Amino acid sequence: MGNIASNAAGVSRRSFITGAAAAGVLATLGLAGCAPQDKQTASAATSGADTKWDEECDVLVVGSGYTGLAAALEAKNAGADVKVIEKTARVGGNSALAAGDFAVCNSSVQKREGVQDSVEQYVDDMMVAGLYLNDKEKCRVIAEKSNETWEWTIEMGATWAKNDNDEYFLYPYGGHTVMRSIAQGDGGGANVTGPFAEKLKELGVEVETKRMLTELVKDANGRVIGAIVHDKPSGNDVESGTPVAIKANKAVVLTTGGFGRDLAFRQAQDPRLDDSVDCTNQEGATAESLRASVAAGAMAVHTDWIQLLPFMSPDEQGYGIAAFYTDGQASYAPTLDVATGKRIVNELTDRKRYADAILETGQPCVQITCKKALYDGGSGLEGALKAGITTEFSSIEEAAEHYGMPVDAVKEEIARYNTFVENKLDEDFKKPIPDDAQTIDEPLFYGVRLWPKVHHCMGGVKTDLECRVVDMDLQVIPGLYAAGEAVGGIHGACRLGSCATADCLVNGRIAGQNAAKEQSA
Question: Keywords assigned by UniProt (predicted)?
Fold first, then answer.
């Protein structure tokens, strides 16, 4: 872990070769050359002339998270015969585990709260967080279509959190210059994936689990006409299970997410992300579909930009439950360096800058607050306390001693932070202080350790604005679409919180709509 901490600052100062796309593809192909050949690497797309088809549909959707379910719903509603496959035993992918808040521009919720927003501001926020490596026009599509897409999710049966007045409300996220993220409820992303899957079932489409894509099939003209999937594979082993050839008369839509759980692949992209760095993703978040896409001629971009989620707990595995508490508290509580007792960052900056600041300290940092200063009455606190991830203290001194921090320095820093709260002005890091923020000066006090985990992959296949996958010459690969985290280049170096929901649902719909319009092969 020392390696990742010592090099964290250098991430934002990387020097890329001309053309980010070339860098991403070279990284991907470099891995293909060194990966275990019996388990990981597809050498080329299978020829349709050599394929005996076992099953057939119009649109084959690969993946069942936000993106895949949205694509399937749109394709089915457009009249296509749709098949959805999911490599794991559970429908929903990472989406079902996510907090699930949705960054929406010009929503009715913003208007009710008097929040002034615009498509341009939304795009600018994404570009700043992405270090201007983003595809700006794709960011614009997300911003422009975010509100209609959020309203569409409700039509499809999704539910979103409501306050005591039975109203949807906004949740604070770092990196956004205005409040625009519509809050999700206790069930998180499952409040979307569950109803979407049920809606598909009503339409006659049931997600087929334990079916993993291993190869894409192309005809003599280079059009993708189907895929080889393995039925009931053993984990992520691409050679296990029974091969099944599925013909897709109109298109294959890749909605397979990222590769955060693919240790060899992610470490080939960023050598610091070894097995000492935990990951928030479910076990199916691996790179076989990206390998299959590249083997079929797809361009890959930004594969070495991998986001770490800063407010995670090193005292639990995977996504866990801490983030459902610590994320919201970031607006109200300081993050302290254990060695110095000092704050290290604007806790409402984007995820990259927040994570880099923690990593620079070389060890987990501590978030400290008190009962009266809790955001939303301490949402998620009870579960974190029961799990032993968050600890309760009678004084700041007790908290500092518990975490091995210099007591006087911590007391001084908390007192200084309290003056920022009182004056609504952060003189050290310029964090926006919420109007309802309270000073941290009365028991009970709460502490939790923070250490980043691999969360979201910025890289994937390159697509056009219609979600069609392109090759190394930037030419469309006919019959192949992709959307969501499987696509690279949209978020640049770092994704803003709650923009993944927007990306996945907006582009999932676009991919499904356009796939259904294709002429049958």
Answer: FAD, Flavoprotein, Oxidoreductase
